[in-house]
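FORM 12-B: Structure-to-Sequence Request
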């Protein structure tokens, strides 16, 4: 009778190798998509105070003074030279076409800090603007549309830079010189502010009235940083919602500032409410948490639109008032 020990040894070896195979992954040990999302900041926001002092001579750069805001100051240039139509509505430049630059000081003297801005441009102005930005050493953060179907086509170019405020604003003046942007004039509107019925009540916020325009600026609850620096509310990181009266209806546009997990929820709410999502993109390069800006448009009864917009704000991490 032949010995079978070698065969038995082989079987034992094979069995022992099989026991080294990984055990099946359980449902609880699998990484869910939610674990891939950034943690929201629970830190308390800095209580920024309204800017008191401005650099000497700053009023001579653009021929007007900037507005003093909480933690920053800001120049605004409505593109009054535009004559833009969309769905039969002549668009007020304060509604959708305002170039702005804001500066946040980073030292007690206000001699250096962060600049952010958004340039509203015709397509024909882009080539010269980009060339001039490069000449002046100013960085771009985004280029995109906000609306769909407007005539003529309007585009938006976001800028960001660090440095001395007078140097940065003088450089931006040179950039704007290759466009038709009106600099010195403020928007002239002698019409009375229109009544908006229950629109503000439905929105849940108090808006700012400017003639036929009603504006809302809603901050998020998170503490938001860019390039490691905390950003004040309204320094380009608030959700902006604008209404413009058009007969018995109103046009709306603006952008919701969203974290990744909110994007598709908001898109579905807007689409169901017959509000068109016109763009989705970033505005900054190094923000924390990661932010997306969802632009929209609709023309309908203002109170009906306000109900949908309120639903978005309640479904996202915005400050409630």
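FORM 12-B RESPONSE
SEQUENCE OUT:
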């Amino acid at each position: 009778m032949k010995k079978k020990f070698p065969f038995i040894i082989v079987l034992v070896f094979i069995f022992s190798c099989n026991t080294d195979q990984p055990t099946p992954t359980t449902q609880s040990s699998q990484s869910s998509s939610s674990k891939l999302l950034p943690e929201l900041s629970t830190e308390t926001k800095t209580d920024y105070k309204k800017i008191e002092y401005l650099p000497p001579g700053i009023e001579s750069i653009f021929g007007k003074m900037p507005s003093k805001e909480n933690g920053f100051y800001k120049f605004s240039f409505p593109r009054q030279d535009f004559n833009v139509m969309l769905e039969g509505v002549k668009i007020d430049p304060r509604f959708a076409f305002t170039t702005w630059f804001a500066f946040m000081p980073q030292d007690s003297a206000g001699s250096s800090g962060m600049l952010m801005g958004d340039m509203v441009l015709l397509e024909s102005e882009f080539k010269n603007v980009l060339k001039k930005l490069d000449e002046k050493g100013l960085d771009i953060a985004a280029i995109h549309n906000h609306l769909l179907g407007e005539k003529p086509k309007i585009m938006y170019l976001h800028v960001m830079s660090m440095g001395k405020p007078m140097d940065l604003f003088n450089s931006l003046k040179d950039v704007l010189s290759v466009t038709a942007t009106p600099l010195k004039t403020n928007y002239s509107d002698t019409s009375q502010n229109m009544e908006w019925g229950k629109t503000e009540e439905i929105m849940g916020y108090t808006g700012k009235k400017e003639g036929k325009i009603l504006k809302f600026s809603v901050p998020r609850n998170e503490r938001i940083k860019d390039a490691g620096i905390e950003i004040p509310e309204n320094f380009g990181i608030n959700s902006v919602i604008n209404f413009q009266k058009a007969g018995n209806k109103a046009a709306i546009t603006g952008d919701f500032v969203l974290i990744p997990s909110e994007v598709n929820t908001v898109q579905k709410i807007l689409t169901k409410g017959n509000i068109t999502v016109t763009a989705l993109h970033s505005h900054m390069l190094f923000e924390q948490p990661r932010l997306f800006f969802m632009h929209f448009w609709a023309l309908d009864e203002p109170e009906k639109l306000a109900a949908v917009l309120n639903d978005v704000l309640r479904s996202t991490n915005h400050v409630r008032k």
